[in-house]
Design brief:
Layout (H helix, E strand, L loop, with lengths): L11 H10 L4 E4 L14 H18 L3 E9 L10 H4 L4 E5 L8 H12 L6 E2 L17 H11 L2 E5 L9 H10 L3 E4 L11 H10 L13 H6 L4
Parallel strand pairs: 1-2, 2-3, 3-4, 4-5, 5-6
Length: about 230
């Protein structure tokens, strides 16, 4: 989810309180990084300052847990939009392509899998980049992405924003058949946006996903250990 540190409307604490009220055990705060440009983004110093706010919120909300995370832009060369030492501090890193959705399949796939091989990355956000009735799916080669996901332990996201629903159902089915774990995300930019989860779950079910296929059905300890075993 996003907060008022980037393009969200609620504070860290408000998002945590709302998620706890919905019965969640944990919530990952994943604001944008600077390279997005069209919305406010965080640099390394901002991420660390936000970490202090998350720590304070966790004291109030315990045993509920807010995870320090980021939706980190993938740069054109496949590198990530934050220094490695900052990324290493975080508990959940989503990697995303925003600019460059019209690139060729070769270029976009190379860029994406380079980022997926970064040791901090836990999940690939909205892989096909579509916005319904506005922008078609990009040319990303999902077969290659799923192969690299299996190699690296990176999950792929079903984004629950109504204009995205990305991955779509047929892609979810392919990911599951390949053995790639799914994350059902709200991509909430407000407290109300936490209500997007049924759209992500419904898309997962249309792709024949079960709870066992969805990474964030698992307990907090398993989430925090993901890719660190």
């Amino acid at each position: 989810v996003h907060t008022d540190w980037s393009d969200g409307k609620a504070t860290v604490l408000e998002m945590g309180e709302a998620a706890r009220a919905r019965g969640y055990e944990y919530l990952a705060i994943c604001d944008h990084t600077r390279n997005v440009r069209v919305v406010p983004g965080l640099d390394g110093d901002d991420v660390r300052r936000q970490g202090e706010e998350i720590a304070e919120a966790n004291e109030v909300l315990a045993p509920f847990r807010i995870l320090r995370g980021i939706e980190c832009d993938i740069l054109p060369d496949g590198s990530l939009d934050l220094p490695d030492d900052v990324l290493a501090e975080l508990e959940w890193v989503q990697a995303s392509v925003h600019a460059g959705q019209r690139a060729s399949a070769t270029e976009l796939t190379k860029r994406t899998i380079e980022a997926m091989r970064h040791p901090a990355v836990r999940c690939l956000s909205h892989p096909k980049g579509r916005i319904i009735n506005h922008r078609p799916e990009n040319a990303l080669d999902l077969d290659v992405v799923f192969e690299v996901a299996l190699e690296t332990g990176v999950a792929v996201e079903i984004n629950g924003l109504a204009p995205r629903l990305d991955l779509r159902d047929v892609h979810v089915r392919a990911a599951i058949e390949a053995g790639v774990p799914i994350v059902c995300s709200t991509d909430a930019h407000s407290v109300r946006g936490l209500g997007n989860m049924p759209l992500a779950v419904g898309t997962a079910r249309r792709g024949w996903a079960t709870a066992a296929d969805v990474l964030n059905t698992r307990p907090l300890d398993e989430i925090r250990a993901w890719k660190t075993k």
